[in-house]
Amino acid sequence: MAIERILITGADGLLGQELIRKFVERDSYKLLATGQKTTPRARNTLPYDYEKLDVCQADDIQRIFADFSPECVINCAAMTAVDACETNRDECWRVNAQAVKQLAKACHSRGTHLIQLSTDFVFNGNSGPYCEDDRPEPLNFYGKAKLAGENAARAAGVGKWTVVRTNVVYGEATGLPRADFVEWVCDNLQEKNRIGVYTDQWRTPSYTHDLALGILRIVHFQKNGVYNLSGREFVNMYNFALAIAQAFDLDSTLIKPILQHSDNRPAQRPKRTGLITLKAETELDYRPLPLKAALAHLRLRKKSAKIGRPPVDAWC
């Protein structure tokens, strides 16, 4: 059996850790995980190789490509804190756009397939949920940089690039610098903190378990182009928070409905984005868990693992 060599950048993140778990379960892949730290954040004993990599450094990328010769690169490295991207635009552009250009250049020179992770925030939120062919028009700088990253990925070459759009990613991971939305809600409710959650921001939350399986199928079938991978349910963030409280047996009365204009934040958020996954369901047999089942599945996983929790201060 031929072994395909897979390079994951940003492997210490929420999706990266899930991808590691999924790939090491399969004998047909040789995996190299990379991240900004010298040692991986994830506390596990899974059999995979890890190296430090700064995707913003062209020399680092060339070194990894020369040593490992990947046949597929899954770029999970990103700056995703939307408000921080708005206030630190140079760093956001460097990580979310320029680094992708460097990766695409390396992939093109070696015939390597590049899978670039992107977001529903490339859309303006006037008419979501969106399909792959809808016209992007980002409202904030994070969305603009991620759209530039999508365009940069195309330089990997015809038939050698894939853009995966997703949104509100949640799952199980360790050592993260900030909480995902589910963790943020759970931590606050467990500490009896009242939280305000938007009723006028609609998305299709994405469970990393489903998202990683969808990416595995893209790798297996060597699919190119743009694919939406997310959950199916189109919900506002307030109702998502209520569903989390119910799934984890927490006090939902601590969750206050608020509107976006009442929350003074640096970056404007689109109101109705979310993603339509019909293309992935048809071409990849992508079958995300229903929201209620996904949260129940996540709760069981969290019960069976000792997970380090980020501070209960903010979710972006």
Largest sheet: 7 strands, parallel
- State the total count of DSSP E strands: 13
What shape does the CA trace take? globular
How much of the sequence lies in strands comes to 15-25%
Model regions low in confidence, pLDDT < 50 over at least 5 residues: 307-316
Secondary structure: helix percent: 25-40%
Any overview of this molecule?
Helix 2 (58-68) runs parallel beside helix 4 and helix 4 (89-110) runs parallel beside helix 5. Mean pLDDT is 94; it is low at 307-316. The chain is globular. Helix 5 links the parallel strand 5 (113-119) and strand 6. A 7-stranded parallel sheet has the order 3-2-1-4-5-6-11, with helices on both faces. The chain has 10 helices and 13 strands. The protein has 316 residues and is α/β, with parallel strands linked by helices. It is 37% helix and 17% strand.
